[in-house]
Amino acid sequence: MLAYIDWFTSSDIFTFPESLPLIGGLPVRWYGVMFATAFLLGYQVISYFFKKEGRPLEQADELLLYAMIATVLGARMGHYFFYEYPTLLSNPGHFFWSMIRPPYAGLASHGAAIGLFLAFYLYVRKHKDISYLYVTDRVVPTVALGGACIRIGNLMNSEIVGKETDVPWAFKFYNDPSLNHDYFAVVPRHPAQLYEALSCIVLFVILFMIWNKKKEKTQEGLMTGVFMVVLFILRFFYEFIKENQVSFEDGMSLNMGQWLSIPAILFGLGVLWYSFKNKKAV
């Protein structure tokens, strides 16, 4: 029986030759590629939805722009507010600069969710023929797919690792940045990134099936509610098998990710309640 999987992957895919102008010596990293892939796949899915429902693809283009800006800014702001608030207070100027400047070292999914919901409010104010929940219902499947891409990027980076375990599919993360190349400290761990990636793919399939059954007549808010409840319940329980992201979480009964997941779950339940109470098809 397989005892564990040795995971030696590098965060870099390749580095451009030094001889090339402008980009010479720059590395192409797995996380960046998966981040871009998330938006590319998301655009394809939203365009498919809009095309099948007879909406202009220009609206899908604009929605992608809103989503890209909101994801990056929301995730970066969330990282500082939720995980590095003392740094934010001590040097706000650095915060605003690092928030928009790649590479994005530190992204909080809860912050991205807040940013997206705010961006969609601005979007529907401009496109008054579209309801707010119509937009969120069409976007959440792409967010699930994007979440899978991001977690695969985390896996390639050997970050957000799980706790020590003896399950047969455990990973030994030899390039975990927290180890400082101390290979004697490497122990088999849960591949928590892989668990979350697979869960996101399954969630995407479920949401797509819900939409595909009735398309434009899908019950308003149903997909958004299912997404929020399922994703963040899973996130809450996955945190029990993941190492804490920052040191201040070590003394907490629930870590920051779990505390932030609770209002997200309650929000999703509220959307489901609204959806079934009104049973309104878009």
Automatic annotation (TrEMBL):
Indicate yes or no for the key word Protease: no
Q: Write the Enzyme Commission number(s) for this entry.
A: 2.5.1.145
Q: Where does a 1,2-diacyl-sn-glycero-3-phospho-(1'-sn-glycerol) bind?
A: R151
Q: How does it sit in the membrane?
A: Multi-pass membrane protein
Keywords, ordered alphabetically:
Cell membrane, Membrane, Transferase, Transmembrane, Transmembrane helix
Its annotated compartments are:
Cell membrane
Q: Where are the bilayer-spanning segments?
A: 30-51, 63-83, 103-124, 192-210, 222-238, 258-276
| Described purpose of this protein according to its UniProt entry | Catalyzes the transfer of the diacylglyceryl group from phosphatidylglycerol to the sulfhydryl group of the N-terminal cysteine of a prolipoprotein, the first step in the formation of mature lipoproteins.
Q: What is the name of this protein?
A: Phosphatidylglycerol--prolipoprotein diacylglyceryl transferase
Gene encoding it?
A: lgt
